[in-house]
């Protein structure tokens, strides 16, 4: 009787929407019987607290019938009262944007209820884009929070990533409301997600069972001999340390302990939970290690102690059944990054800040590898190491944002794929001696590390867990024992040995590629022989001439500046940086190794950046659909709270301020130095890229009224594209409310000089692109307006502080103008922006206050 009463009490307060998250759409008696048997077994073994009793399952089924009845009545009501809307919602032209817009604008509960259920019909990726809008409506509109609660909780029970995004956004947007209102349903939802009431279900479906290729610790057959010898040495050292540990314990305790009593302390992690003893000792060995989440000194700060998918005797579970917190590891990883950013502003100089940052990152490496990831990189991966020596504090006056380079390994399943074995940075790395490098370079091919996302899409992901040995690793291995040397670290000069010719030694004059070395002497002409001999006769004057040409042409490498250490780090080409870090990394031999970067910001509200990102993504899609050849690069934003978050850095790009400060050149001369002469193809291509990107960001800055456009917030990449960053001041917000920048957008005489002058074709092309981009944006205005309108409702963001800003945004689309009138208006805006006095005043103000180049 008590059992029945306890289950009834548990069932009554459960919300119908919560229960319906796990409701099957159709009744299957065989499945119900099987579920009852599984539930009974799980309750008996106490492996999961979420098992439903038969009475609860009956309640769920009855709720399913009620929900289906409610849906039918809703459709009938819409068919009678709003037949046009019903046809629109059921048509193929009804997009997620239309659903979100009608959900916000409709005041009828029956329509909102229908649209809340309609969300389940669309791809999750499309709805994830509008997650900030859904969260904002959930917080501020009670009628909508009721109808979308079921969708949010269902998604939270299906995905850890979605739960994390919801928790971070709720925390960020609730913070403003808590100042003026009492906690509401949104606060309860936040705590339910954080305490994992909607615990995500984690499953793993391996392609093959007991397959050695699915083990991260399996290495290539060519390395078996070397690895076996290294493993033997490690086992010997481990055995010696175990003996020392037992001796110390016996001395402290005052009595002898058998080896079996403490051997469990040294077992690998995947063996600790195995019952290798009987009685009390067996219980002790089955006990999991102490949970140390958040403790960076423990070495397991990002480990939730889940061992459900550990490989035990060749078998692995298909589903996680433990109660380990699933959200905590990533949350603690992000918290650690943010806490470092909060400490740095109190350090006096940038050089000391960088040193402090390196020390903190090295401390974080003690807790890696771990099952944590960078959320705005959508491919599954594990963080294995932070390249702490590359971490740099960015140029900022009041705060200390920093960029961190993170080593990851791609995987099939974040929670089930095994982690690589932990490697210490102090471990000696094997490198080749120069004498034997030539032979192996000629007989092996070193792969080039391509772009991050492209390389991931191009690689075979059927079994990423087995692709752990890079072909570079096979290159540096050899059967001969006399070609190896050891070094404590691999420097940049050592990294270049694989790409540069080796100096003359033992009769070798260097190496060439295979096709150059295998020249048939019978087919080699006399002329080529003479030219080959003439190449050896190089006069000193020729050498000086060539050195002078190298200094005056080609890309400029910035020297390290203590006042701005990030300039040299950002100017280094990404492929070279990735290759250099890979050579020095203890995990660089893994085939699925990749390098990613993230900017950590504290003290700034990144919700403005997130809004601008959404707007630019939609504009980019519109321009692509309308075939407008402009360039825009939306920057991924991860909002962690109302004053912290992560930003995706732009690779191979530096600010205009850094270019002017380090090169001492004008922008046009910098283009000539970087991309060649005026008539070269590379220079012309870079100018076209410059014009297309200038046009795109001119439209964005005009529509969103983006301010604070000094040269520190405008980047130039290695292809000539202009990329704007830092959208903290837009719509109605201006720096310090001074209102310096009154021009529609920023276009200076230096920009026009790169285009070729006021009478050039490229300058005319720039104005044509602005007109085409505005016409396309005006045509699809209904896709852009809901993004801003929904976020303004109930928001306390600075960009919405001055009246109805969406009304001004709608007016800037100029719906009342003809195409000819809009063309005249574009000419007027470009001319006023070019001759704007306020732009020059603001650049001068930034120069004297913050030292930013004009």
Automatic annotation (TrEMBL):
GO biological process: phosphatidylinositol phosphate biosynthetic process; phosphatidylinositol-mediated signaling
Pfam families: PI3_PI4_kinase, PI4KB-PIK1_PIK
Keywords for the protein's UniProt record, in alphabetical order: Kinase, Transferase
Matching SUPFAM superfamilies: Protein kinase-like (PK-like)
Domain PIK helical: 1-201
E.C. no: 2.7.1.67
Enzyme class: transferase
Annotated membrane topology: Peripheral membrane protein
Any one Gene Ontology cellular component term annotated for this protein: rough endoplasmic reticulum membrane
Subcellular location: Mitochondrion outer membrane; Rough endoplasmic reticulum membrane
InterPro entries from the UniProt entry: Kinase-like_dom_sf, PI3/4_kinase, PI3/4_kinase_cat_dom, PI3/4_kinase_cat_sf, PI3/4_kinase_CS, PI3K_accessory_dom, PI3K_accessory_sf, PI4-kinase_beta/PIK1_cat
Top-rank lineage group of the source organism: Eukaryota
Catalyzed reactions: a 1,2-diacyl-sn-glycero-3-phospho-(1D-myo-inositol) + ATP = a 1,2-diacyl-sn-glycero-3-phospho-(1D-myo-inositol 4-phosphate) + ADP + H(+)
UniProt-listed PANTHER family: PHOSPHATIDYLINOSITOL 4-KINASE BETA (PTHR10048:SF22), PHOSPHATIDYLINOSITOL KINASE (PTHR10048)
Protein name: Phosphatidylinositol 4-kinase beta
């Amino acid at each position: 009787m008590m059992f029945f009463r306890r289950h009834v009490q548990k069932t009554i307060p459960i919300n119908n929407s919560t229960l319906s998250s796990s409701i099957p759409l159709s009744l299957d008696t065989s499945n119900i019987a099987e579920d009852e048997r599984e539930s009974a077994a799980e309750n008996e073994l106490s492996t999961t607290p979420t098992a439903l009793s038969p009475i609860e399952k009956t309640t769920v089924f009855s709720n399913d019938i009620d929900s289906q009845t409610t849906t039918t009545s809703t459709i009938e009501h819409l068919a009678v009262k709003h037949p046009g809307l019903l046809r629109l919602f059921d048509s193929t032209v009804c997009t997620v944007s239309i659903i979100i817009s009608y959900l916000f604008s409709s005041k009828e509960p029956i329509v909102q209820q229908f649209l809340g259920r309609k969300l389940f019909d669309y791809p999750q990726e499309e709805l994830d884009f509008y997650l900030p809008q859904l969260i904002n409506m959930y917080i501020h509109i009670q009628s909508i929070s009721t109808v979308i609660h079921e969708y949010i909780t269902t998604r939270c029970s299906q995905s850890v990533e979605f739960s994390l995004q919801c928790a971070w956004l709720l925390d960020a947007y609730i913070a403003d409301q808590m100042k003026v209102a009492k906690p509401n349903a949104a606060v309860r939802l936040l705590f339910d997600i954080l305490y994992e009431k909607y615990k995500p279900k984690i499953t793993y479906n391996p392609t093959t069972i007991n397959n050695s290729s699915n083990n991260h610790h399996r290495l290539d057959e060519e390395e078996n001999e070397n690895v076996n010898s290294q493993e033997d040495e490690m086992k010997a050292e481990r055995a010696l340390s175990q003996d020392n540990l037992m001796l110390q314990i016996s001395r402290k305790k005052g009595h002898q302990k058998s080896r079996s009593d403490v051997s469990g302390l040294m077992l690998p992690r995947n063996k600790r939970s195995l019952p290798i003893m009987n009685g009390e000792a067996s219980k002790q060995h089955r006990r999991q290690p102490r949970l140390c989440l958040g403790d960076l000194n423990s070495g397991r700060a990002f480990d939730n102690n889940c061992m459900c998918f550990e490989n035990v005797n060749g078998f692995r579970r298909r589903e996680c059944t433990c109660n380990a917190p699933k959200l905590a590891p990533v949350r603690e990883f992000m918290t650690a990054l943010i806490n470092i950013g909060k400490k740095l502003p109190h350090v006096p100089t940038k050089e000391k800040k960088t040193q402090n940052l390196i020390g903190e990152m090295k401390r974080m490496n003690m807790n890696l590898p771990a099952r944590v990831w960078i959320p705005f990189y959508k491919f599954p991966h594990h963080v294995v190491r932070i390249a702490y020596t590359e971490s740099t504090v960015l140029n900022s006056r009041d705060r200390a944002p920093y960029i961190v380079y993170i080593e990851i390994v791609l995987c099939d399943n974040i929670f089930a794929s095994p982690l690589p074995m932990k490697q210490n940075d102090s471990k000696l790395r094997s490198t080749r001696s120069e004498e034997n490098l030539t032979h192996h370079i000629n007989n092996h091919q070193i792969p080039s590390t391509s772009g991050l996302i492209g390389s991931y899409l191009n690689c075979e992901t059927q079994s990423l867990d087995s692709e752990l040995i890079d072909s570079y690793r096979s290159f540096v291995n050899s059967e001969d024992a006399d070609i190896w040397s050891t070094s404590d670290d691999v420097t940049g000069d050592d990294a270049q040995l694989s790409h540069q010719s080796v100096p003359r030694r033992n009769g070798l004059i260097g190496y060439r590629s295979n096709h150059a070395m295998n020249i048939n002497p019978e087919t080699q002409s006399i002329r080529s022989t003479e030219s080959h001999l003439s190449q050896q006769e190089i006069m000193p004057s020729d050498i000086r001439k060539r050195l002078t040409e190298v200094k005056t042409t080609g890309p400029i490498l910035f020297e390290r500046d203590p006042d701005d250490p990030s300039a040299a780090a950002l100017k280094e080409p990404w492929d070279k940086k990735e290759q250099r870090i890979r050579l020095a990394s203890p995990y660089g031999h893994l085939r699925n190794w990749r390098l990613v970067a993230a900017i950590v910001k504290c003290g700034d509200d990144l919700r403005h950046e997130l809004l601008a990102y959404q707007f630019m993504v939609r504009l980019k899609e519109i321009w692509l659909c309308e075939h407008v050849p402009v360039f825009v690069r939306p920057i991924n934003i991860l909002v962690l709270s109302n004053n912290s978050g992560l930003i995706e850095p732009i690779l191979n790009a530096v600010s205009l301020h850094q270019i002017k400060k380090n090169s001492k050149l004008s922008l046009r001369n910098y283009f000539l130095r970087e991309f060649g002469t005026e008539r070269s193809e590379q220079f012309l291509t870079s100018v076209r890229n410059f014009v297309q990107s200038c046009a795109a960001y001119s439209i964005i800055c005009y529509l969103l009224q983006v301010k604070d456009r000094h040269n520190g917030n405008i980047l130039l990449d290695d292809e000539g594209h202009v990329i704007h960053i830092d959208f903290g001041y837009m719509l109605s917000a201006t720096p310090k409310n001074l209102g310096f920048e009154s021009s529609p957008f920023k276009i200076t005489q230096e920009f026009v000089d790169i285009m070729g002058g006021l009478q050039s074709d490229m300058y005319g092309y720039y104005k044509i692109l602005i007109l085409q981009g505005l016409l396309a944006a005006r045509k699809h205005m209904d896709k852009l307006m809901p993004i801003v309108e929904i976020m303004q409702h109930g928001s306390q963001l600075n960009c919405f502080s001055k009246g109805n800003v969406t009304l001004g945004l709608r007016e800037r689309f100029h719906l009342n103008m003809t195409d000819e009138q809009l063309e005249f208006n574009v000419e007027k805006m470009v001319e006023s922006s070019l001759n704007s006095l306020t732009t020059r005043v603001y650049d001068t103000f930034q120069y004297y206050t913050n030292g930013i180049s004009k």
